[in-house]
Amino acid sequence: MQETGVRNGAHGADKFGLKDLKAVHWNLTEAPLYEHAIRNGEATVVAGGALCAETGHHTGRSPKDKHTVVDALTENTVWWDGNRKQSKEHFDNLYADLLAHAKGKALFAQDLYGGADPKYRIKVRVYTELAWHSLFIRQLLIRPHRSELAGYVPDMTVIDMPSFRPDAKRHGGREGSDTMVAIDFTRKIVLICGTSYAGEMKKSVFTTLNFYLPAQGVMPMHCSANVGKNGDSALFFGLSGTGKTTLSPIRTARSSVTTSTAGARTAFSISKAAATPNASSCPPRPSRRSGPPPIASARFWKTWCLIR
Question: Which residue, 165, 93, 156, is CA-closest to 129?
């Protein structure tokens, strides 16, 4: 098996059960991921240098195909009226079938952090079938310093395999669906298949944090935030696409999007969902009319707030 990139030599793909792979490309940076995506026919470069990929019939997440394993940990702690159940046997079938499907394939792996606060963040290893998915998740979660990778051991593993189609009877999925997102909170494993929509990876990490953090006295929220000149704070709530990100880095405010901070009045901390430098070093956000910047150099301002 060919391996490129940097990883913990004592904790490779075999630890997850991935065997007989053609290759694993570890923690590749933007340029080689661009090259792989273009060479493999996954995406094209459009005007301005952005990488453009099609997600197939899924243009967003598929919440009806998201399943959670029912076991001693989750039976009485998950609100099952709003979540789909999956037996451990069905999950194990899917796990085994995905591992078999991966044989002979070249995979891309990223070792990342979900959350900025060292006290609450989770180490996430993400295996993807597509190079552009690896590029996507590399931007949406936090990248460790390269020196940390040699000793990196994941707390959670995500395997993202769009080309695999689940079987409703064998895997416990929704009848007639060719998509599944399966989460085992006990083993901290997420299996994604049948969808090329890359946002399922990010959301699965946040779902895991949403499950574990309340028990630690932390309330995660889907919002953005900033801090005013006098230290007062504001949280912006809303559905995706309604302007939270646009409002968060207002230049007249002392933006807290990329920092971990605790205010005496509100006792909140901000965890970034992307590896973003200090706000002062970021370029101005492009207008919608000017088109997106290349993803390789884009700054993502998404914010994940923790209330303590």
Answer: 165
